[in-house]
Amino acid sequence: MKKIIMMLVLALVMAGYAQEGSIKPKFQAFSGALLKLKDTDKPGTLKFSLKVDVAPWAFQAIGEVRSPTGDAESIREALFEGDLYAVLAYIDNSPVEVNGEEYQVGLFDIMLYYDDEPTTIRNLKFKLLPPVDDDWSKSGLNDALSSGSLLGNIWGGKYEKAITKASADPMDKGKLKALKRKKSAASEESEVSVSDSKKQRMKNMADEEDQPKKKKKKKASRGDECDDPSLTPKEKKRCLMMKKKK
Question: In the chain, what are the domain boundaries?
Fold first, then answer.
């Protein structure tokens, strides 16, 4: 019984910290064009999937969405007309760095907005994608899910301003492609720089190896000067005598 009471007290304390602002969620909006919808056997409900694999994101969110009107077809129409978008909530305290790039793994909630109105989300699950699908990254995700749950309903109230700001500039396919091109160009430039540096080092090493060989050749040519076929026998004899005197 004492253990149960202690756990309840601890939960209340943690909830108090969360409400006081020690846990500050951030928000990132994504265009509805990145969403995939599927039918379910539940009236007015669709399955949804959001997959993003460009740094700082590498995740897939899967869940069920129900429109405010309870009409599943209205969600499809909103998607077709560009009136459906997603807003991801995350905690920016545990980014994971991979190959010089940071990835946000502190995801804990998501909301789909239909005509700027929040829908109802159920059975939400997050899956981290490569290169952050390791145990360390997953532990960061689990911590965020636990911490985020202490905030209660975040879709409105004190976070409404931050959500509205994020919704005004959603990440879409065009922006994701631009990010990929930018990262690819930066990677190629880095590879070229490394390659040029390597070539220069190899050239310097080759030059250093050639220098002793050149010196040896010069010494050899000096040692054979009396064997020059252009010398007369008398000149060769004189040359040999001069060498002996040296």
Answer: 24-171, 188-245
